[in-house]
Queue: 4 jobs
Job 1
Amino acid sequence: MLEIKNLVVQIEDNRILNGLDLTVKDGEVAAIMGPNGSGKSTLSYVIAGKEDYEVLEGEILLNGENILEMGPDERAAAGIFLAFQYPLEIPGVGTMTFLKACLNAQRKARGEDELSTPDFIRQVNKAADKLEINKEMLKRALNVGFSGGEKKRMEILQMALLQPQFCVLDETDSGLDIDALRIVSEGVNALRAEGRSLLVITHYQRLLNHIVPDTVHVMSQGRIVKSGGKELALELEASGYAEYRASEAA
Amino acid sequence: MADVTNLRTPAETGLSKLFEVARMKFPTGVSIAREEAFRYFEAMGLPSRRVEAFKYTDLRAALKEAAPPADAPGAEAAHRALDAAKGFSGIEALRLAFVNGHLVAEASDLGRVPQGVTLAPLNEALAAGDRLLEHLAPVSQARENPIYQLNAAFMADGLLVHVAAGTKVEAPLHLRFVGTGAEAFSTATRVLVVLEADAELTVLESHEGPDGVAYQPNDALDVVIADRARFHHTRLNGEGREAIALSTISARLGAGSHIETVNLVTGAVLSRHQIYLHFAGEDATATVNGATMLGNGQLADSTLLADHAAVGGVSRELFKTVIDGDATGVFQGKIIVEQIAQKTDGKMKSDCLLLPDEGQMMNKPELEIFADDVACGHGATCGAPDDDLLFYLMARGLPRTEAESLLVQAFLGEALESVTHEGAREALIGEVETWLAKRA
């Protein structure tokens, strides 16, 4: 599914990723954990195609195709989805208008017909019900005045509608209370499928109690420094990141 | 003065000649006022950038030649022009059509006027010495403005609208101003709307004309709003690409009255829309918005003066400009709070979105406050679309132009929300979409 090889990335002369290698197989849920400043969010932005970052070396292959030359919209159409750590508020853009525009833009890019309005509304309502998203929220401007939890649920709603192949969840648990964490996790779990892989970025193990990963990777100083199964997350929760910080420093 | 006379431009000399010819043809009535207006204009000349109010819109430089006033067009030409004009056409309305500044009676609904409303062609009203004419030019500051005075000197046709006390007119009045012709021409129309106490009226104005002809419309709308009356006004500047389009709305607000006026601009190589508000009665409220979309070579100027001369007035002004390419937006807004006008609440804002970085926006907000218990403020912003918002939208699959379009629609939408008439609001949103589609 996704293969990252020797990725070296900088922003304004600050090197953030230092030869990162990572492979996520079809249908796999991979978790990336790591201390603050280890480059986790940078990785998510670089996968999604944010322009501020300069890729100096390496490649990101989605099903064998290098996506680094593609714009963010082309990557989205190819099946990449980033659930933002801080979803943006867009005053004046209605949530439904936004959802429909995104869905149709992706369909168009893939050479598919546009969705009819009734079909679109049916799909949105179905996905919104599962995520316990209030219909009133859908009538408002995108994310404007939404609580942290509502914004995260809106991200997962978009993920459910767009049906991407490869999803990056950037600290989706931040700002969520216990109930919201459960709802969001259930939403994500419902999207686990053959042919869809997830990269879950988090500081804490608690999210991984809900979204149980197949693999766990520890990131430090812009590299994957250790990989293992889900038990690695528990070890980290017990021992902290000190060991990895120390090993980097040495 | 002799020096000034020596420096007259060809356009100024031309206007003097045209006035000498045209005055003989004008209908009688207000002829003294007409004469005075022209002499006033003549003494001032076309304003250049040395005149503060025209600092960013140098009419003296822009108006190379004075185009002759257009004659009334033939029936066939008039109908052809009207058929081609699409502004607000989807809205159920009472329509009054003006082609090249002349009322086309056959294409106007003069015969099906609702009860409580009186319409009279300006020509007839002038000839008959209509009593309503005393309401012309209701705001004194406008009478010191050269554009408005030129209109007063040359006004050739227009309309008088009277709405009786307590009459709430359901269907909007749609004033269609359509230009046609292959040679440069000028027009000067004057519409006077008088709303008696507690009356309510919606007026839609659409301005359209040929591309490739440097015609020069100068339109004025005078509005007298009596106590508690409500006036809703939506204006669409879809003038031809070479037009130099000048316009003025001046309104006098009675106690507890309300005006909402929104101007959307996509047309004309140079346009200047002037808004004069005089808060004469207590607790009057005004919403004045503008949405301007400019492409290469265009200049659009919105100039506003809100004169609070009574207690408790509220004014809200929001101007939004989108510039795509080498174009110039101008916003000049002045709020005056006279000593008597305590408890005035005035807020004015101008925002500009520069799509590429070639355009420029000139903002000049002014507050002149003589009362001590008021809340007034102004603000201005200018910048490119937010990169983070663009990335968010693109990461969801929207190509850059579509993402930008969505942000532009949202940006301008804020200025269009205040349009009370749903059909008019949707029509303006449609204009934004059309402009964006042409851009893409």
Note: Residues 81 and 167 of chain A are 5 Å apart (CA to CA).
Job 2
Amino acid sequence: MALSSDLDIDPTSEEVLLTFYRRLYPFKQLFKWLNRGPERTEKESRLFPYREFAFTLRNDAYLRYNSYPSDVEMKKHVCLLTPSRFEIGPVYSAQPKDKKTVRPAHFKPEKREVVFDIDMTDYDPIRTCCSDADICRRCWGFIAVAVEVLDTAIRDQFGYTQLLWVYSGRRGIHLWISDQEAFELTDDQRKAMVEYLTVIKNGKEPGKRVNVRFGMKDLPPALKDACQAINNSFDELILQDQDCFGSQEGYETLLSLLPDAKLASRLREKWSDKPDSPSYVKWDEMKAEVKNLKDKNARQIMRNAMEDILLQYAYPRLDAEVSKHRNHLLKAPFCIHPKTGRICVPIDPERIREFDPAKVPTVGQLLAELGGAGSSNTSGEHKDDWQKTSLKPYIEMFEQYANSVQEKQVKMDLSW
Amino acid sequence: MFQAAKQLKLQRNSSDDIHSVDNGNTSYRLNLYDQPPLYDVTVEDFETSALDRLRILAEIESSAARNRSWDETKQVTITQCGKYLPLNSNSALGIDVQAERKKDQLGHFVLRLAFCRSEELRRRFIRAETTLFKVRFETDDSNERRAFLNSKEFNWISVSDAEKTKYESQLQHFIGKGDLDNEAFYKVKWTTIPDLVEKRKVFLKGGYAYVPAREQASIIYAAFEERLEAALLATSRAIPLVDEDTRLNPILDNLAQGFIAGVPSDWVASAEHTGDGITADMVDSLAKKHFPLCMRVLHQSLQKDHHLKHFGRLHYGLFLKVLGLSIDEAIAFWRKSFAGGPGSDKFDKEYRYNIRHSFGLEGRRMNYPAKNCLQLHSAHEAGCPYRQLESSPENLQSALLSSYSASGLTINDLPEILAQVKKKSYHVACTRVFEITHSRSVKKGEGLGDGESVTHPNQYAARSIELEKEGKEPKMEVDFV
């Protein structure tokens, strides 16, 4: 794995973590976001204090059911524990720190943001550049398409607007949806939403994984839109960059997805002569074969199959389990990835294609910037130290997001 | 006569419109149960209406536990409804439809009182009631159904023609070759119909689902479920206020219990089933062919040890009595079974009295019914073996095999039965054993006939004997007597 040169600091050492949490981590903004508004009256304040935080300590011990009245107490405790990372859970019906003393029936997960998790390992069967934990600029193309498709679908079809995309620090991306309605969805509704958005199940298994139409029917309108969006990047991502069908193994996978056996064997014959011909040549040859089909019905079947192939190769592959249940935990934004040292920064979905995982600031880089900015005195509060570092644009983006969640909330309250 | 209405009224905040529903008349066969019964009922009506409804709901539950298909469940439910809670449409002649509907409504509200008490009970009640509603909705007369729908407010917005044109290509997908102008669409928040969203059966836009007319039923089911859930929660908060009534609480407790083991049935008058009654000599062969596991176990241990403890004698004795063993035969049977045990004097002194007592010939002179499954579930001794051996599956397996391998139970059937036991669906496990051992005349899912589950050991035995009499069940080659 390529680590940047300024990472001679161990991102899991106590010293590094302590400085990071004390001087850089945006606890205030985190509080504002999760509390969905400014200070609340006693009755309303069942948000932040009822929220679960789970810590992974440096010795890999896992501490669940922590909760805090506000960001100040939370920061204090985090600085004491210096966890290597932490996760955010749901808002429970009682304060999670009291879990042992309340009756189990009175301790239920009630609300939480709807979350989605996309992980590069689910793309292993189709990506040709890296595998497992590795990620490069090239595989980011898959994530970019996934974000575009999902972001559009959720905004347009579900009508949610408060979407926060967060880089997971290595090879994936998380989405947090904070709209009031999303925040209050039941597990059944969450499951429905995920299933609705899921096309590829068990993406790691080989073979045809797309099964979304019933008989000869067209794609449902939602997936038709997705197909259109994918079509725009399919050429560049799958055919040119990834060159998915550029090897014998690659094109055999493609042929196995074709329902027309005769057509597939004609193509196999043609391709076995020069198995390394570029993918776009093969794709065009396949298109030509389909065009030459005389039977209108057979042509339609092949067109459908090609749509399915688009989906199989570029539709977002979701880790469904994370999204289905309210009590699932997900890593908090701005944590440090323990292996790469990179910060889990928010990403603007409009500019997802420009995003380069390798350019995300690492904790080593940030501490160096802090040191360069002068006073490295260890005592006293370090307000807004982050403004001096390259974390600045990301925290600003996060603050803006937290404010948007908040403003809507206030407006809602006024309308009553 | 007393006023149950007083209690039921608690579920309503206002009783302004009492007069309009005073007599409980309803114009439709379908009911969303938004009006509680506001009239006097007898304690007896209070209990029977609920018990009859419970029989249906219990059958629906066990259908789910046994993975019956929707059509099978529907069929079973219709049969059960016909038996216990017929509900005819307005066009039915010569039937007091209002009386039927009153009973339907009353039963529903009594069960609400019984099942609002814990989350688990609420959840199960909602599921069973919704299934019942679905069955009735699907089988309702289409004209009456339309009138019923028009009479209620379901919070849907009809999609205008302008909007239809706007999303023409997308909406067309959901009606196939149909003409968009003639097909109605309804708009609801997507969160009200998650099941349709999950299957991509609706068009989604801006958080609203456009539901095609043929999926409209889903909105209604969702509304039914949602309203019932809210009502049950409200009832559960109100119920402490009625706790002072000692007449109703035992009934309600009993009803809540009934959901766990199917409805307790007092099995009586099986003499007709078995013909002229049975003799002491016949018991052993009957046991091998027709007894449920609980009674088989008692019979086997009686034969082996020549003794049974008090509760074993009580349960087995009452079972045999109801099966058709007369008092004289019973004394003969027990005397024979105890051979080698107590001497004749001791038997007369210590056991004869008990046997006569259980026949209603001594002491209180009460003709006791045999214990049903529910009572056997809660018995500490000599109770339901599926339940008592739940924690030691090996023992249950060997008991099942030794008792029923002669009637066709194989080792391959065991995992399924044990899975039901693990789910605490003891009566389902027992019913399944019945199906397997009577596979020549009973198909999977049919249970004791018409899909009924085992709720009483005598019901099990009587049905088994009946099947044999019908000649469907070929005789066992060997009698072990």
Note: The beta strands of chain A are 51-56, 62-66, 85-92, 109-111, 114-119, 163-167, 172-177, 330-331, 346-347.
Job 3
Amino acid sequence: MKQFLEGSWAFADAAKLCRPGVISAYPITPQTHIVEHLAQFVANGELNAQTINVESEHSAASVVLGSQACGVRSFTCTSSQGLMLMAEVVFNIAGMRMPILMICANRALSAPINIWNDQQDSVSLRDSGWIQMYAENNQEAVDLVIAGYKIGEKPRVMLPVMVCVDGFILTHGMEVVDMPTQEEVDQFLPPYNPPYKLDVEKPLSLGLLGGPDVYIETRYAIQKTMEDVLTILPEVGDEFKKKFGRESVRLIEEYRLDDAEVALVAMGSVCGTIKDVIDELRQKGQKVGLLKIVTYRPFPEAAVNKALAKVPYVGVVDKNISLGATGALYTEIKAACSHDKKISGFVMGLGGRDITKNSIESVFSQSKEKVNSCTFVDLHNDLLWEEFRV
Amino acid sequence: MFSVLAAIPKSSSRNRTGSWRSLVKPHYLQKECINCGLCKMICPEGCIEGTEKNQYSADLDYCKGCGLCADICPKKDIEMVSNQGTE
């Protein structure tokens, strides 16, 4: 049923429809509303789950690792500093092959303290072994949560899934969302039936010491599984489309790319703004397009290469920066494409700086002018000095 | 694809870790033993066997040579001796 909802409420509804047995999270802006709503559902008796209060994100991640290990579908969500505090456990969750689903409400990292949106937090954990998907809007986020459990819990996959939603822009934005019914989700997502779990009747130890004699094989196994996910994820996407009629679950989305001369590559909510700019520029006769990365891990290198094959000029929009190098997505797009393609990197929207239509238009024109690997867009130069000042 | 992920109880005993032992190992004299069982209880490896007087011994496939058994024995009936050249 179509509903007009705040993003966080919609994400909480989606998580509830997946019937998690354990929910544990620590409040952090801009993620708080999501767990708040879930806790309310449990208190009202609308959701049969245990919400476990914890003293930190490190504990929240540890709780869901424990509950998932016991064979219970588990949910957590966090943001920014919270994700950094979870980092140790985030790697453990993937290493122990626990298909937990986490919503990351993307927010900048300190210092300086900043509660506003960019994608530095989740991008910093791209190497952790989690499947990472970025939502453009609230409908897509709802769909990715429901499909995320299905993908992660496949016995061939057994990997955790992070659904990344831009903080405030999505979490606090009000949009119409077509919310599936419980019956539909129950038909799509069967109860969690893991191939291994902690059980006193059949004792098992997980997360053990793995020395030089076994460790590298554990990494190889995850790497090969990630490669498999590149096939499995679109299959689940097809299944999702059949059931719910939407194409949200995919590796990439191509928007007016067919005859494009300049294409931007981006992830998350900024893709909505870029599409609007494309429509306007197309009306003026400019051949522009967008390649939206939905699934960032595993990285769909072949799909990216194919989608951009005929596009001579590419601009990559990064809402993150690998300080001392370039934006993270730029590096990967560059690696995925042929050397003769003109690819520029643009870092923008950090710490909640607005990405306006004008910013996007200037990025389109700059991409055609001159190749630059790391251009910061919309800088206030009056805030930059060669020496310390207060 | 999966690799080593879990273990069932006792499966780590496949790993004969006695090769990590320090320079000494316990020698059970089996003369003054009173069957108090302290050596068996204090052993961090749980590798001491025995239920009767003068019948205790350490399983050198797992013993690390820490010397706690010799230290706690009230009858000084366990000696730590050189590990060299005896493997």
Note: Strands of chain B lie at 6-7, 24-28, 48-49, 57-58, 78-82.
Job 4
Amino acid sequence: MSTILIIEQMLNGLQSGVMLFLMAAGLTLIFGVMGLINLAHGSLYMVGAFAAAAVAGLTGSFVLALMAALVAAALAGAVIEILVIRRLYDSDHLDQVLATFALILIFSEGTRWVFGSFPLFLDIPDALSGPVTLPGGIEYPLYRLALIVAGLLVGVGLWVLIERTRLGIQIRAGENDREMIAALGVDISKLYTLVFALGAALAGLAGALVGAIQSVQVGMGEPVLILAFVVIVIGGIGSIKGAFIGALLVGLTDTLVGIFLPELLKLFMDAAPATSAGSAIASMSIYILMSLVLIWRPSGLFGARA
Amino acid sequence: MTDTVLRTIGICKSFGALQASKDISIDLRPGEIHAIIGPNGAGKSTLIAQICGALKPDAGRVELLGKDITALSTDQRARAGLGRTFQISALAMEDTVLENAVLGALGARGRPWRFWASALGDKDLRHRAEAALERVGLAEARAKRCADLSHGQRRQLEVAVALTLEPKAFVMDEPMAGLGAAGSKDLTGFLDQLRQQAPILLVEHDMDAVFALADRISVLVYGEVIATGSVDQIRTDPRVRDAYLGESA
Amino acid sequence: MSRETLFNAALLLGLLLVPIWALLTDEPFTITLATRAVILALAAAGLNIALGIGGLVSLGHAVFFGIGGYAMGILAHHAQGFTPLMEWPFVIEGTKSMPVIWLLAIVVSALAALVIGLLSLRTTGAYFIMITLAFGQMFYYFAISWSAYGGEDGMSIYVRNDFPGLNTLAPIQFYGLCLALLVVVLVFSARLRRAPFGLSLNAARQVPARLEAVGLDPMRLKLVAFVISGAITGLAGALFADLNRFVSPTMFSWQFSGEIMVLVILGGVGRLFGPVAGAVTFVALEHVLGGLTEFWHIYLGLILLGVVLFARGGITGLIAGREASHD
């Protein structure tokens, strides 16, 4: 096994981790500020991907497609926040789970109704297609590299937004004390809609970016949603930093174990059973990681201690 | 050793820079009511939490009947004989008065692992529960749902649930909270008798009740016990007057 | 008799009479639908113990349903292929005997619930929901990668398993068996609620602090509830596999976990017959709406939103009043 392969796989892990972070950041922000557990976050990911694929199909422009993804997901987020979600802030988690599960059903079937059951395809823009040669002679797809950079940029942007702007101060205040920010004259319901739309936009962006390397189809959001849950359980609910570290851990674990565990097992057993046992265990690896973190720190790496 | 039922020995607890308990040593003797008083934020709740097991002290021990219970969890302490009431009623609001009392009796027995026979149909459990309700004057209300009780009745039920445990010591966190004058007077009379059964560590803001009931009083200020003594000693203690009346005097 | 009791009796009577009527009018498909409803009700009755009494919002109950399904699938697969399940250290043969399959489904589900519960119950609230969901996904991917038992495609079982003294291939007899199991579980649930365990668990959901203060450990009560709950849902999984003569990883899917929860809420959370009312309604909606439009899940979603936002007691609550009975 060569160093090149290892570096390549680490980049793949980084790429999927960074995209997971976009999902997890929105989820953890929404949970931290509004105390809401949002199962429909995966639907917003899907909305972003479909909007991008549709607009790219019409205009051929990837930039317009990304803008469409952001706008569509943010809009969808704002609409469901105003119609449904805001009635759930004071409800228990059970109600939140059920109502957002209902939203998944509506979004998924609605999308199937509009776009049909066949997957759509979103092409990688020409400027970003093909491989690029990294130092050390490693050939790596330029688009995936662009995803890593884009994800990191969004991460930095989010950090600036939360740490350095007025809105960020309000968001952080909202995490600590709802009554307090209301008393300071902040329009809470507007702030909540804004935060929800922001989280939705991040999910939509992730959906569109990932949509170009996978197929765009109904149900694409939920596996990512559940991975994002694993990320926040590991990182600690409400912590953006935790979401970032957790996302990288999950992305890297998922990718590296899947590739290297079968290889490792081949040293001890026959190739065929090693491959099947390796992939079976690898499919469970991030959940094992999650269990270990739970045993060690039940409220996650950066979560507030209960 | 036998003349204290419950005691804390030098317990300390800090939250960051805030020292909520500074080397607190108090004891509870058979047949007495020992009141803990102090201004808001003095650390009374933190002290109760450490005695009952919700918080672990940074240093020091808690002993019940001479046995070190510092390492025990809340439920283990309850089984060891510590009966407590809560400042804000902690009752199963959807359940009836009798069911709440039976829950206490169940705890006293320590075995909830029965899946078939009815709990209310168990003669022993029911007898214990009804006896406790009778004693606090709630026998008539046994079939009412907790949510439908008046505030005063909920306070009574709090005490009744603790009674079903037949504890060796009671720890009561503001049992008078929110009671009117008449309610306070009734409960005061009841606690006065209850001390014969088991001594009471009483945290209370109602000074009339404290002065009427307490055999001894400890005054907690900024996490520290500044004085312990009889009602008269405390009334005249200059440090206590200073702490309570301080600037305004 | 309270309105809830009357409603429950009517439901039970319907479950007895409708299949008999279907048998007389020769409508075997109705019997299959009723069997589906009864099995789903059983799965939901399992969840109702953890969720309704214990307040544990488990979004991973498909794990137990799937384990039950695969217990049936694996044992029957070896029985129909005449290959031993295990040869070392001792030989275990597959089986087509329902009681043995059920026992295995219950035991393995209970063990899985014990492990998942031990880990998940270290946390509460939103963490608990996400973690149970994640464990569900773990089993789902494991089943997909388990190529010995069909992997992603699942396994078909060609014959229905046997129950002593019954012809399980006759739909009405298999239905009777499922209904009998549902009734047994409902009777057990009813007793459990009033027994010391149920009383304590109910209080553990409402005021864990009080429970500790009387010397009971809420965490252990919830763990036992989770195990019982998982075992019952596992049994339902084995029956479901037998009904379809097919098992696949979708039995482990998160959608199914969500659906079991929907059944409980639709019927009325914490109500003894809530799972039955929910499952019957769900299967009826699926049949009627599914016949009208391919996209019936949209309507299911809207109905569910309506229940959550406006009718917290579910169907039982609408019919029998909001308060759970306390007779």
Note: Chain A touches chain C through 45 residues (CB under 8 Å).
